[in-house]
Design goal:
Layout (H helix, E strand, L loop, with lengths): L3 E5 L12 H10 L3 E6 L4 E5 L7 H16 L5 E5 H9 L13 E6 L20 E4 L3 E5 L11 H8 L3 E5 H12 L5
Antiparallel strand pairs: 1-3, 1-4, 2-3, 5-7, 5-8, 6-7
Helix pairs in contact: 3-5
């Protein structure tokens, strides 16, 4: 059974309590999604997409419209196939070292990374933070904490001309576990 993951950008962070998770579950159900489960209160949902082959991009746009109509909010939504999220979780390049997953960020991007647009970034200029470019994601290890890092979602968006939303390593792994829960092995 195919599962999708919806990542809402910038909601319920800090003082911005904008989208209750029960409302997110209702909106996804209204779009024909089934088995909708949310993780934390920061806009993460795992679900079975509607029958009829609605793709991730179309579903993300539909959810953005539903949020705008029902809550009068402009929220960007990135929808991924569950398998893609699981591959991202498996490819975390800093694994094998003693890294706190809360100090690891994965920025999921709305399209493929054009590596040429990042070629002039000097990794030494961002030390001790480290980054690794994936296919549609960028991994950042922030040993001093994610709030102090200059390797931000805004940097990647500006450089790549894409929108993104970041999740820490704990969240990425938890969502991957939700995608594969109760699936035949």
């Amino acid at each position: 059974m195919t599962r999708y993951v919806a990542l809402l950008r910038g909601i319920n962070v800090g003082k911005h309590r904008l989208v209750p998770m029960d409302t997110l579950r209702e909106l996804l159900a209204d779009l024909g999604c089934a088995e909708v489960r949310t993780y934390l209160r920061s806009g993460n949902a795992v679900f079975v997409p509607p029958a009829g082959g609605t793709g991730p991009d179309a579903l993300g746009e539909a959810l953005e419209r539903a949020i705008a109509e029902r809550l009068s909010l402009d929220v960007r939504v990135l929808v991924l196939e569950g398998d893609e999220l699981c591959r991202v979780a498996e490819r975390i390049p800093f694994s094998g070292r003693d890294i706190d997953p809360a100090r690891l960020l994965v920025t999921f991007l709305s399209g493929p990374v054009d590596r040429a647009r990042l070629a002039d970034l000097d990794p030494a200029a961002y030390a001790p933070d480290q980054f690794h470019v994936g296919e549609r994601e960028i991994y950042v290890h922030c040993p001093g904490g994610v709030r102090r890092s200059r390797l931000t979602q805004a940097l990647w968006e500006k450089r790549l001309g894409l929108f993104g939303t970041a999740r820490n390593g704990n969240t990425v792994r938890a969502l991957a576990a939700m995608v594969t829960a109760d699936e035949p092995r």
